[in-house]
Amino acid sequence: MTDATDAPVQLYGEPFDSGFAAAHQRHLAADFEAAYAVYDELLALAESLEDSPDVRFLRAHLLADLTSVLLTASDLPRAEDTNERSRALLDSVAAAPMGPRGRQLWLEILLRTLIASSAVLSATGRLDEALACLDEAAAALPGFDDPDGLRAAELGLNRVLLLMTRGEWGSAEEQAALLLSTTPETAAETVPRLLTALGAICTATGRYDPAEDYFAQAEDRFRALGDTGEQQTLLGHRAFLAMERGELDLAERLFAEASAVFERQRQFGDLAACEQARSHLAGLRGDSAGAQGLMEASLERFARLGASVAAADTMLMGAQHAYERGDIEEMQRLAQEARDVYQARQIHERCAQVDLMLARTLEDNLERTDHGGHERASVDTALSLALPAALALAAARHDFVTAHARSQWLELADEAMRLAFRLAVCRQDQGLLFELVEHRAAGAALALGGAPGSVASATADRVPVFPDPAMKAYGEGGDGAMTLGGVAAEAAASVGLRVAPPPKVRMSAESGRVALQEYIAAAEFRYGRRIVDAEEVPFWNTDELTARPVVQVRLADAGDLFMTWTWAGGARGFGTGRGPAAEVDGAVAELAAALPGAGEGATGMRRAFESGALAAPGAERRLARTLGEALWPEGLTAQIRQVSARAGRPLVRVQPSPRVAQVPWELLAVDDTDARLLDLADVVTTAPTSLRRQSPPERTAPADPSARTAPGDGPVVLVLDPRVPGFRADSTLGSVLGPPGSDPDLLSLVRSHLDAGTAEPAPATPAEAFRRTDLDRDWLSGVLREGARRLLYVGHVSGAPVEGGQSEDGSLHLSCGQETAGLTEPVRTHRPLSAKDLLLGTLPLRGDGEPGARIWPAPPRVALIGCESGGDLRFAESFGLATAMLHNGAELVTATRWVLPTSFAFHRLAGVPESVRPLSEAVLAVDAAHEDPDPVARLGRWQRERLDLWRAGGRIEHAPLLWAALTSIVV
After folding, report:
1. What one-character-per-residue DSSP string does 514-541 give?
2. I want to staple 824 with a disulfide (CB 3.0 to 4.6 A). Which of 203, 218, 834, 924 is the partner?
3. CB–CB of 288/330 below 8 Å?
4. 833, 869 in Cβ contact below 8 A?
5. 511 CB burial (10 A radius; 0-12, 13-18, 19+)
6. How far apart are CA 613 and CA 604, in angstroms?
């Protein structure tokens, strides 16, 4: 031990002080046998001394240090024995007189024994007892002088490791990330272990690049510490990462290298884990004998160590090998034994994995053999296993703090849901398929409250080991309000959106049936996880849809594309459809090739004009036919024609799945005559039912409450091409509408609102409404709080990358400077207004923060005319700009599906005369539609006029590249 100046601290005298130091160095060098020898010699010497409280404490200290070495070497039985002996000695001297320094040292060793007990209990599958030890340590911690938080950090790390053992990846990641941000650099041994834990979490949840980064950071820190043992342990982590990535040759090489190291160092737990993974690799290569041998070796080692959970993992792998050999009885035995272990330890995620494996083997067996009259029962059994497990795995994403982590988890969990859909198809159960789509389309609900529950207890709540995720560190702001300070302020900018389970989807008001209710109940019972919220919503609210026939269409991705539809408003009926994955993917790929990409800039727009299918009549007809054949069932087209002939033009409400969210449904050719869906019906996009609010958001009362009383009163808020700080008119975030006053049609639009006294802002001349510098988020909040009936935004929108999974990163570009507070990083001297801002408001930034719905309450009708402003539905979680406006109170949002060409782009890239301004025409059409009692029908009429002009002349200014991007979104 050393003091603050790195001078040796004299604790027990020689040879003990130098012996402690020597053993510690051998521990770091992974020379465990040499460390054991030092401790054995010191213990023998201590036991030869005359018994006294001081000698007993010395022995307790030696045993505690020896326990640390044994844990590193995975010698769990000996570690448990030495730790129990250390604790008994500590208890025997607890009442002995001690000075302040002695009492602090006693507390430190006590904390170490409790943490070590937790580690042993966790490794041997006694998870509840492990948690109890951590709680006891937390209760003792306040009495320990821990100015740098070193023991608190170690205690927090062990909570993270326990969560990982339970398979509670989201909670583990949240706590590890928070702990890493608050752990001081002086906790030199804890920080790299936290980084390793985060790398392991990312590997297990499909985020391989961040995992590699965490491992690299951990390796650098272990190297700086001279900790050879932990550096060697990272080999195993990197090998597992390579295996998960599919880099099997690299994984085999790393596992072989790690196995040699662990065998040499007698780290038999780590060696057994390597053998377990190598067994899996051998199975992938078809080496069943090799896989069986490695599996048996791994199982024997884990059993000898008492590592029951790890042994169960090996048994589960052995069950898969047994099935591949055709040994069904052995497969069932091993799988059930593994599940019994998981169930006893309440490791629900692994229970679900066992059930899925059994369901997959049943599905495989159904394909291989004829079950005759028992086939229906076999399918039912497989479904009873697969669907509850799939629901539980999908619900596990709610534990994760960020949408990116949840999206990566869903990529893993979706395989289970695809299995459930396949089994429903095999059973030919249209009712079940309908409920599967409805549940899947319900979406996730935004959670503005606390985090989902995780491993905790009453004791831990009273004595927090490290800041709870809901806690904030506050500093005093200049205005006297509480603002985030220190590390918490930096973390706020990267705060993620939390989500809660979706609402129950009520299928029938008469029966009260909830979609998948039997399977949801089974999942919640078996796996101890909440699948749906207590709130119920009807799968479709038809109370106000009696004036015209309406059909609600919902789509869900599950390998194939699944569709449901239901009629209302004077028409009755429902149906289901399925598009084969290959056809759907091919059609979507053709559409993507026709669109300008979000990150391509001018190059993508040039390609879309020069060779894109939406800019050439013949190619556009072929694309419309391809999309129609892949995505739209003929039976639904026939129903639409029948309803139209009897009751007039119907309204088609389409809730797309992420895979088909950019599809311009209006353009689909639905028969051989080139009839488009737009010819037969009006089309509107619908958002997930989880966005359906029970009550509108609270609004600040207007300064003069008597000024506006009727719902239709209030101004039209005009945000027209605002000037973005730091960007010239001809730059990337420059003008989209051209010089102010240069477009007579847009001037006329502003003048009409000024004449009616409904414009906000209300400039002296129409030209002053464009390229303003005062249209920032604070101004927008003020006018929306006062009450508005419409918002018309025309300007830049930056969409979020779909692969990142975080739709809430989509942003509007107002006139906000970089000094403006917000949840998005500045761009040059400008801070964008993101969907995350609109949803969370200042809650993450201020102690007295407000949610976004109160700061920016959306008017009933909102138009966001900018690049891919309606790209929300391309994400598994729809929390982008359009859905944020719906969440904040809007009833209808008109937005765009892809990047829009400006009028300047038409002039420059397509040779259109400067007097023709296609984007301005679109703005005028949207403005007129939002003034109409039926905005969807009005916008649909304009789009049909564009389609007729396109068919008649094929002129580029009438191309659907622009007008088909527009869609109105409702809940």
Report:
1. BTTHHHHHHHHHHH----S-S-EEESS-
2. 834
3. no
4. no
5. exposed
6. 13
Contacts 24+ apart (CB under 8 A), 367-374: none
CA atoms of 464 and 620, how far apart (whole Å)? 62
Bridge partner residues of 499 (DSSP): 446
Q: At 331, which helix (H) or strand (E)?
A: helix 328-344
CA-closest candidate to residue 899, choices 868, 875, 872, 863: 868
pTM (2 decimals)? 0.83
Sequence-distant (≥ 6) Cβ neighbours of residue 945 within 8 angstroms = none
CA dihedral angle for residue 229, residue 230, residue 235, residue 237, rounded to 10 degrees:
140
Q: How many CB atoms lie within 10 A of CB 477?
A: 15
Longest dimension (CA), the chain: 107
N- to C-terminal Cα distance for the chain?
A: 64
Question: How buried is 340 (Cβ within 10 angstroms: 0-12 exposed, 13-18 middle, 19+ buried)?
Answer: middle
Q: Are 191 and 159 in contact (CB under 8 A)?
A: no
Does residue 670 have a pLDDT over 90? yes
Backbone angles phi, psi at 318, to 5 degrees: -65, -35
Q: Among 727, 738, 731, 902, which Cα is nearest to 831's?
A: 727
Angle at 883 between CA 880 and CA 888, to 5 degrees: 115
**Contact assessment for residue 165 and residue 349, using Cβ atoms and an 8 Å cutoff:** no
**Nearest CA-CA partner of 591 in 540, 627, 641:** 627
Count of CB atoms within 10 A of residue 50's CB? Answer: 6
Summarised one tens digit per residue, pLDDT across range 704-753 is 433 333 446 789 999 999 999 999 998 889 999 999 989 999 999 999 99
Please state the separation of Cα 208 from the chain's center in Å: 15
Q: Are 313 and 303 in contact (CB under 8 A)?
A: no
